């Protein structure tokens, strides 16, 4: 998988803030009280369930920002499909520092791997169709770039990153603008030629109106598969088609079979369960 790493300047402030939240003004009281200052050790992260890995760069930063003397060796890469018992990484260094960083490292790694795993499940469900699985803006505040990276690690694609990089006209915009035509016409007059315009429709009548005016992408909201199939026929390749609403691993295949180009899913970022990963001391190290 060709997965472009997250830029360090984007990651470091978030990891520093997470460490500061955990360490506070007094640091790790437990490790300082229990572990000798000169003790060194190794901790190995092991998967307890099947999944897809994402977030190793963030985990490594948690250790090295806590203490530059910490080192992390990776046994797998982001995007790797793993099973229970798979060794993910080994962190070595001063024991106090390793223990102080471990929860922050696991929080990032487990959360992002959970998103990658959920995405991969949907990608498998639509295999053999033209549909790509896309995320949305339903992300954890301030973690959007990381969560969207995890979607890519799971084989999905990214929707817009924010309000600033594309136009998405939804039902409230249409109501406030006075209808589909004025909303689309104002958008065309306002944004530059490099900005894509997408509009949400709930009915086939709305879709036909959109196609008379033109849009780059149409969001087919909460349509059953048979209606989606008819909508794809109406669009006839003149715009990208995106299905949204009621998407689960059980329904994804039928939605994809309608011929849509994209299936957008909010829960893969806002509700995906974490991947269960343990981080344990290696006595032999």
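-> sequence recovered:
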């Amino acid at each position: 998988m060709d997965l472009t790493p997250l830029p360090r300047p984007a990651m470091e402030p978030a990891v520093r803030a997470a460490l500061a939240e955990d360490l506070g003004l007094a640091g790790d009281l437990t490790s300082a009280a229990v572990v000798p200052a000169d003790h060194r050790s190794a901790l190995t992260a092991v998967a307890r369930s099947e999944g897809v890995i994402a977030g190793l760069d963030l985990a490594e930063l948690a250790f090295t920002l806590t203490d530059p003397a910490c080192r992390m060796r990776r046994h797998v890469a982001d995007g790797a499909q793993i099973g229970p018992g798979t060794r993910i990484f080994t962190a070595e260094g001063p024991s106090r520092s390793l223990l102080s960083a471990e929860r922050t490292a696991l929080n990032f790694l487990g959360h992002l791997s959970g998103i990658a795993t959920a995405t991969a499940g949907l990608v498998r469900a639509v295999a053999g169709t033209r549909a790509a699985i896309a995320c949305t803006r339903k992300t954890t505040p301030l973690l959007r770039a990381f969560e969207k990276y995890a979607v890519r690690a799971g084989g999905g694609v990214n929707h817009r990153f924010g309000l600033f990089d594309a136009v998405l006209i939804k039902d409230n915009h249409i109501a406030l603008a006075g209808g589909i035509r004025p909303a689309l016409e104002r958008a065309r007059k306002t944004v530059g030629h490099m900005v894509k315009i997408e509009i949400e429709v709930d009915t086939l009548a709305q879709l036909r109106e959109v196609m008379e005016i033109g849009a780059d992408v149409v969001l087919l909201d909460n349509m059953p598969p048979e209606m989606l199939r008819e909508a794809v026929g109406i669009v006839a390749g003149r715009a990208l088609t995106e299905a949204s609403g009621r998407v689960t691993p059980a329904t994804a295949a039928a939605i994809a079979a309608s011929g849509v180009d994209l299936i957008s899913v909010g829960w893969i970022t806002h509700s995906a369960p974490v991947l269960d990963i343990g981080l344990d001391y290696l006595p032999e190290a």
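The chain has two domains: 8-123+272-281, 128-270.
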